[in-house]
Amino acid sequence: MLFTTHIPSDIDDSVDEGCSWRHLTLLNGSIVLITYHAHMVATFNISILGEFRVKESWTKLFSVEFSYVEQPFGMENGKLFFIRKDGELALFDLSTCIIEELGIKGETFGCRIVVYRENLLPIGGVNK
What we know:
By secondary structure, the protein is mainly beta.
């Protein structure tokens, strides 16, 4: 089933010109919108959708500011992946609010999140 809903009023394009990254995802079974503002201090705003098709049902859960974030590059399982200003990759767990350093260098335009799932079937299909 497909639903259309509006983004929060405080994130409207006409009002929120400083937003440089947006990501719609699931967090603990709810739809959330994460926005990123790249100013002197990087700010992430996390809002949750209360009811489909009701623009006013968005509620801002929290805002997080980091002084060392260069750029976010993806979300997976409630974890926000980003590149620090020193080029190291890290993740921020939205459920626990814990930052984990990954110990890997990244490129600003070369980092992507890819979902990998093992398949129990061989590539050629089921052997009979």
